[in-house]
Amino acid sequence: MCPDVSLPAADPTASIVRVVLDVPLDRWFDYVNPGLPVREGNRVVVPFAGRQLVGIVMALATESDVPEHKLKAVLQVFDDVPFDTATLKLLRFCADYYHYPFGQTVLASLPLRLRQIKPAVSRKMWVYQLAQPIPVDFVGKRQQVLSRLIALLQQHGECNEAMLAKTSASWRKAMQGLLDGGYVSRREVIATRPSMPASDLAPTLNDEQAHAVNAILDNLHGFQPWLLFGVTGSGKTEVYIRLLEKVLTEPQAQALIMVPEINLTPQLESRFRSRLSQFALVTLHSHLSESERLQNWQAAQSGTARIVIGTRLSIFTPMPHLKLMILDEEHDTSYKQQDGMRYHARDVALVRAKQANIPVVLGSATPSLESWYNAIGDRGQSGRAARKPSYRLLTLSRRAAAQAQLPRIFCIDTTHSPPEAGLTPQLKHAIELRLQRGEQSLLFINRRGYAPVLHCSACQWLADCRRCSAKAVLHLRQRVLRCHHCGDEQPIPVQCPSCGNPDLRPVGQATQRIEETLQQLFPQARVARVDRDTIQAKDALTELLSAVHAGKVDILIGTQMLAKGHDFANLTLVGVLDTDSALYSPDYRASERLFAQLMQVAGRAGRGDKPGEVLIQTAFPQHALFAALREQNYAAFADDLLQERIAMQFPPATYIAVMKAEATDYSLVERFLTDFSQAARQYVTEHAVTLVDQPLIYDPVRPGIARLNRMERGYVMLQSAHRGALQQLLQVAVEWSNAHPLQAKIRWIIDVDALEY
Ligand SMILES: [Zn+2]
Ligand SMILES: [Zn+2]
Known about the structure:
Oligomer: single chain
Bound molecules: zinc ion
Structural class: alpha/beta
Largest sheet: 7 strands, parallel
Mean pLDDT: 91
């Protein structure tokens, strides 16, 4: 490698390089520097256990605990420094809090290209800015291109080539004159995709929106979490845009916008691009190619990108001038990582905002109970869970568009009107009415495939997944039985494998079957289905949504994929088909999730000037959840639910962590977990005096999906009213588990603030 002249001279006495690697050992590794120009934060290539690995230099030292002759040498240094101190501090916090090896935390936060053994090269572009005042007589009367260039530079401070090219095709010649005269300077930055300004005007804010914007803008300097609680269609995005417009006027300032799912990025991205076209914007999500991801990541990390819109993984993107963070749909469970380090991007965002001393805005129509609790406190409750509000609450209670009203919500009692092929007569009639009026309908069923179960009526056999303790879902079109947990596919049996009966019947409803039913009922209607099976290609959803907007679809059938964020002006009916199983689920979070989902999907109706109607098919129309939903009173529902959680000492009134273990043989899992809970209890007893709170340790149990992908699973729940006490116990738990004799035969992980077991 050629030494880079801009590097500080390497300290000749610092012959030891201390690096972290992507290995499950929570420590630094020492290497000898054979005279390469190494800096802290550099990426290096080192030998490790017979392989070559990319590591990050954490420190340079003069001596090592390992005798020098046993140390291996650094093989290569890349001339890039992916991290700043602030990002490393955040990653350190996460590794500690989630009890995950630091090296893996650090390396996993990087785009793949930066984990590979090769230099990371992104495309560059020039940006121009005024270097000194331009004399009045410099611009002649007929030099229009030149004067337009100068006006642009004066307006924006810094302009990229795409912006300047809009003045004229011959802009380069005029610019050269400015450069030659020393009036303009230019520098090379990581290239970003240019945005186009919108032709439409910014809407006027209503009182509530204006209040929210002003409240946050008055408190920009310092850490403050805000909960922006706004009903569907209340114009949260417009609030975000106004905040960014203001925050980004500060030179170099950056903002991070997080969205739960990739499907939401195109819509939000195009709105942000058109309204904030003067600021370089990049997206970060899993649908980008590896080179795009590197490009966008480096644009953020170098400070070129002023706006980053990303999903969960973008929370760790280094942004040297971060001034504001926004998490849209903050209640969404996809913010929680379910493998590797089990972080929750919302919680990490809070920590990051605190460390950077900046505001963070959490937006939702149905906030998570965690955030709700933080925003309202426990309203006078006392006891060990007493808590004061730490977030500030901003409410948007009305739809932003003047004519748009919240939809009316009704329940259809399926005990009185039994559905036929999934549809009650009332719902069928409502769809027919929409077809006659030329309006659109949306049917929500959160189950993809043809039918959830394949059943033998002779012997009651049901088709199971071969690798999981779960039913295999019938996918008739693809002619397979597919497991939605592990992805395993098997052919549909021609006869019952148990008794030989050839008459196997699909039971229950799912998207494909409803689609078929609707096509039979309304042969003239144009029906479209949106679920993970139809929307696999990158642009499939965007294409389908534009077909809906263009009025080319009469009836939409979809899973929760459709529930979020999409705006359909001509959609006036939402039918909810089958959600009763979630009403009485053993998971205490099921009703919170169901409410959020139904509120979201109901929010799709009546976004334009026509009123919307929501029909929910249920056998339990008296359920409190539906009462709150009909009144669209999330606050009342959340308050009740919160009181219940406080009474039962469930999160968010307490904190939990789950030790999850799996092996091919459950007896091993059981032994490990039994030993674990005993050791944990013993620790709590022995340290009763020093622990702020004595965490509760439950007995080992099996999760709902007891066998997943041929692994037998079990878990132990730990619970405490104090985060600190729980963390203290977890620290010991990790050491204990690493030393357990079964450690090599078991896969275990600690899931802090677990949402799923
Ligand atoms: Zn049978
Ligand atoms: Zn399976």
